[in-house]
Amino acid sequence: MEGKIPSKIKEMPWSKAGEAYVLVDSEAKKNYPLDPISFLVWVQCDGKTHVDKIVDIFTANGNRDIIKAAVSGILDKLTNNGLIKWV
Fold first, then answer.
1. 46: which DSSP letter?
2. CA neighbor of 76 nearest in space, from 66, 67, 86
């Protein structure tokens, strides 16, 4: 979604279950388990932070291209699961 910014569909309470984080949508009566990195990406989806800034948060030691591909895949997964929208 070039030029658009990811934003959570809505804020949701969450809990940690082992190594996973679980978003709880009480209205839809659904739980969304996320791995730790996907959860941290979801947290950054505030409707203000551009994808490049999210990538920068996770980038270290010149691995930006790999991180950008991973973050893009995570954002696609979050979009497909109805957890974020693009504004």
1. B
2. 86
